[in-house]
Design a protein that fits this description.
Layout: H1 11-22, H2 26-37, H3 42-67, H4 75-84, H5 86-120, H6 127-146, H7 148-180, H8 182-188, H9 196-210, H10 227-254, H11 259-264, H12 269-278, H13 280-305, H14 308-313, H15 321-324, H16 335-357, H17 372-391, H18 397-422, H19 424-442
Helix pairs in contact: 1-7, 1-10, 1-13, 2-9, 3-9, 3-10, 3-18, 4-5, 4-17, 5-6, 5-13, 5-16, 5-17, 5-19, 6-7, 6-13, 6-16, 7-10, 7-13, 12-13, 17-18
Length: about 450
């Protein structure tokens, strides 16, 4: 009898995964980028966070509607199959297993190592950083492979821990800012005049990448207790909480330093804000929380990465499904799929270093693997949302049309933004994407069945 994944995670773990994956190091430092994009216009900056949040919540809500109707082994692949058919679902799953999951996971391993190096006083460009990144990558793989229950508890714990500095700054920073007039000053003072439309476009792009990652929570669909109820609740409540947290934290920062100082601070802007509110020790404490935040995000990404190729193998698709759909009887983990995911993460970590952290090794094919895969997955959502509107005739107007249309608009926005931001890198990435798809075609079997 074939061993199957057990339903071992509850609503709290699923919600923590949504929040924990999205809230990583970006939330601590994206505030400066948004301020610089808007010329220090705090109102415009908050509007950017709201728009970015609406894009995220609308996509999550649309998938939440589908989550109440379909479930198998990997949420987004299930939804692709139910709406677009088996072949499209296969290519979505193939892309996520081969590119999306491992690129995101490898970058987070490097980011975790980078802030660890800042904390310890090591060079962020030397061998120490890449060595620590490798250790973090293997460590997250080990905890997920050896004890998925422990990995789930670790996800909940790190999510709670990473919310502490955000909550402190949101509450205390706002109180201090109101009492000393700093918030009022920042809301009424614009550092420099900018083209409002272009500024908002650029700022929303920055927030959009800070909001990414929630879709990975659907990878534990088959392991959720009462998935048709808990996954929608986790997606909607988790993404809504993230938007509120970001906005409150953004306002709290405005109570700690002036917009001009924040804009000039670079990566030290948030650290300076914490020092002003919580003394010099606050800056060091912030980086401790940043490291914990990154590691928690890495853990959530590895949760998805380890199940990437399994989601195809469970459908008897992809290379050697008989091997990759095997579940360990003791740990109840797709061990072979996990090992394959770790290998891909290592290769993409090497690519990220060669393409972005040193003199480019790959020439024309050097692109930012931390951003373009995200835009690609948004592009893949569009046909799913369109077919959902066509097929789900028994849904109400809002669920069937309004939410998907808003989601499609957000996806199109992301695609346009990527083209403006990355230009020829988009072409290089598309070539790699096509090559990966052609390799995936070799392993696609029309006659395979679930």
């Amino acid at each position: 009898m074939e061993t199957k994944l057990e339903r071992k995670y509850g609503l709290i773990t699923a919600t923590a995964m949504v929040i924990g994956i999205v809230i990583g190091s970006g939330v601590f430092f994206k505030a400066e980028k948004v301020l610089n994009a808007t010329g220090g216009n705090l109102t415009l900056g908050i509007l950017a966070w709201i728009i970015g949040g609406i894009i995220m919540i609308s996509c999550a809500y649309t998938f939440a509607v589908m989550a109440t109707r379909y479930q198998y082994v990997n949420g987004v692949v299930d939804y692709a199959q139910a709406t677009m058919g088996k072949k499209y679902a296969y290519y979505v799953g193939w892309f996520m297993a081969l590119i999306y999951y491992p690129t995101m996971t490898s970058v987070l391993a490097w980011v975790s190592a980078r802030y660890t190096c800042v904390l310890l006083g090591f060079s962020i460009t030397g061998g120490e950083c890449m060595t620590i990144a490798g250790v973090y990558l293997i460590g997250s793989f080990a905890i997920n492979s050896l004890s998925p229950i422990l990995a789930g508890k670790f996800q909940v714990s790190t999510t709670i821990i990473k919310l502490i500095p955000l909550a402190l700054m949101a509450v205390i920073g706002t109180i201090v800012g109101i009492s000393n007039g700093m918030i009022g000053y920042n809301f009424t003072t614009v550092v420099k005049q900018v083209d409002t439309s272009n500024a908002l476009f650029t700022a929303v792009v920055a927030t959009a990448f800070a909001y990414e990652g929630w879709i990975i929570a659907t990878s534990i669909n088959a392991e959720l207790k009462d998935a048709k109820k808990n996954l929608p609740l986790a997606l909607v409540s988790g993404t809504f909480m993230i938007m509120i947290i970001y906005i409150l934290y953004y306002v709290g920062l405005a109570g700690a330093v002036t917009n001009k100082v924040m804009m000039a601070g670079g990566e030290s802007g948030a650290k300076l804000a914490f020092q002003n509110i919580f003394s010099a020790a606050g800056g060091t404490i912030l980086f401790v929380f940043v490291v914990i935040s990154c590691i928690g995000t890495l853990n959530g990404l590895m949760l998805g990465c380890s199940r990437g190729i399994y989601s195809l193998a469970a459908r008897n698709l992809g290379p050697r499904p008989d091997i990759f759909k095997q579940i360990d009887k003791v740990t109840n983990m797709p061990t072979n799929s996990s090992i394959f995911g770790l290998l891909l993460c290592a290769l993409w970590l090497l690519y990220f270093y060669g393409a972005n952290l040193t003199k480019p090794w790959f020439g024309f094919f050097s692109f930012d693997s931390s951003e373009l895969p995200i835009v690609t997955i948004y592009a893949m959502y569009i046909p799913i949302f369109i077919m959902m509107m066509k097929k789900e005739t028994d849904l109400g107007v809002f669920k069937r049309f309004v939410a998907p249309v808003i989601s499609i608009a957000g996806c199109v926005f992301m695609i346009i933004a990527a083209c403006f931001s990355h230009r020829m890198e988009v072409v290089a990435f598309l070539i790699v994407f096509v090559v990966a798809a052609l390799i995936g075609r070799i392993f696609y079997n029309e006659n395979s069945s679930n």
